[in-house]
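User: Need the bound-state model for iron/sulfur cluster:
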Amino acid sequence: MLDRSVTRIVFEGLSPEGELLFYVLATLSIGVFFAGLAIKLRKYLRGRREDRIGSWRGFLAGALRGLGAAAANTTVRKRDPFAGLFHAAVMWGFVVLFIGTAILTIDTDIVGIVAPQYHFFWGAFYVVYSFVLDALGVVMIVGLAAMAYRRARMKKPQLDYGRVDLAEASTDRRGFLRGDRLFLGWLLVLGVTGYIVEGVRIAQDDFPWFEVFAPVGYVLGRAFAALGVGGGTAPELRLALWWGHALLALGFVAYIPFSKAFHMLGDPVNLALRSPLAGRRLPVLPAVAPADGHLGLRDLADFSWKQLLDFDSCTKCGRCHVACPAAASGAPLSPRDLVLDLRQQADAAWAVLAPGHERRSDRAYGNGRTGGQVAGGLIGPRTLWSCTTCLACVEACPVGIEHVPAIVGMRRSLIDQGELEPMLQTALTNLAKQGNSFGQSGRTRAKWTEGLATPVTDARREPVDWLWFVGDFASFDARVQGATRLVARVFQDAALDFGILHEGERNAGNDVRRVGEEGLFEMLAEHNIGQLSKATFRRVVTTDPHTLNTMRFEYPALGGDWSVWHYSELLIWLFREGRLRTERPLGRRVTYHDPCYLARYSKVTQAPREVLEAIGAELVEMPRNRANTFCCGAGGGRIWMDDSMLRERPSEQRVREAAALEGVTDFVTACPKDLTMYSAAVKATGLEGRLVVRDLIELVAVATGLAIDEPEPGPESPAAAAAAAGATAG
Ligand code: SF4
Ligand code: SF4
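Assistant: Bound-state model below.
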């Protein structure tokens, strides 16, 4: 039976003055901790208001999801199992040690004073407590040692703080490195000194039998005893060690809000508050513009409190940096550096405690109230125009930072300031005048149907089951038109009741919005919604993942709420229904490129793969696939901008990745822009004899017997051949 002697004396050997000093220091440390939090909170209050709660039910579900992800470390484990495993070890070790300290504080400083008869820090509780804390302390130390090894030895590219937008000589990031090392080192020393203090205590107390349940401390105690420490010797050493450990612990508490350690508090909150639609549905411009009428995120004060919290949550893990196609191509953009620059500016402008901070930040940043200009100032136009809005950064970020809305918000400001990327102006003018970026008359939008044997129904005049929203590239681009005609032929072959808006359709506006041209986006969307509203149909289908995104996630807010499908989803449904049949299984090795806007934005990754399986293709995956796909470089309006200054275009890097796969002859994709970009990339890289770029529909047409297979793409591709066959048949 365990009795009250099974415990240890808290503050053993400490004089009353020493105890008092400890409490004074503890109060100070906690005071500094809360002052640090107050500085942060006050900074967030300088940001624009933003409702992240919405409905309570939705908020609770999101918060539980976010906190669950933080607790299970799923976002850290994703794509980096080593970091995930050892981060979990550090996190859970620390959490349990923290809870253990809190329990001891409650027993000593609350129960011990208010109701000593209810003391619980003894007997079975003490034994279990000792064992759990001893074990989790080891877990934390192992985790910290592994993370230190990863930083020092594994040379991960994401941990290289070199910048892509500035000359090496003009940046000094040694402060970042020092901060990382201090955080890791402090925790490590804290853990190790805890065991040393415990070992010396057990040795001096002559190894009470129940201390075997603190096995690490017990073994260390034996080692100290062998060195002559024990049985009442060297009480000064014990006291000195205890003070050393206590000061380290109290110092760490005070250090949390001012350092990398803040992520322990900020990141679970950030994950709980993250929007599942971040980037997919962009925020509308605030109803009330600032006093001077500027649009977009021009100044720091235009960012919301949640965006300021985003910047503070960054752990500098670099995952977004290595996932970013712009950074990989030599463009002057790294999502990590963009976030860190904004954080540093916000800290310098607003994170000061002393009264009169406005004057101080005024001096440094021009205006304490606005926080200084960021769009076109701190974050330059070339950086902002480099983004393809591929969402890789948002997808990779383990702490739920939403880079894309911030970048687009700043682009809105560039547009407002007239700082357009030179080539963009032409595309925007065409879009405003003709409703397409090709500068073609809107009346010729359905010209691609002319080669078809069976005309395509005008959905404005007749009711249809499926409204096919064709999109710009599928309608006007010469390389893509062949594939577009094939889509029509496959749908007709499957007896699908479908129609198009003909010249009633305009660009859906997805990329216009991501360029930052909010007004033009609204015009295009309102026009399309008006046309669609006049037609009678049950569902919408599109081949264009960009159109899919804006129609699925953004049109509903403007009154256009329909069920919108990607054609790969419709194709696999037609195969399952038996309305499409494979007559000639392909029987060859292909690879499939997940378009960013399909895999990351709409999370459609399985349907195209199932279509490939249904037509008898052998799929060989590229190393980066599904949500971890790589971008073609066309998104976010980049297809309308100059990319000649890039070191190597993202599309070229991607086709090289595919060409490294053994026996793969076909590079298959399911996006009209991809077809254009990758066809050009295969030519530019000299891989023409090695890889053929195909739209999914081209292979479906071959396998279902609608088209003949041909090795080369272009006007003589299966698409064109099938279209020609259709014309002849007609
Ligand atoms: S959206 Fe893509 S291109 Fe833009 S910053 Fe993020 S990773 Fe880079
Ligand atoms: S923004 Fe996210 S992914 Fe990028 S470095 Fe910071 S924490 Fe890592």
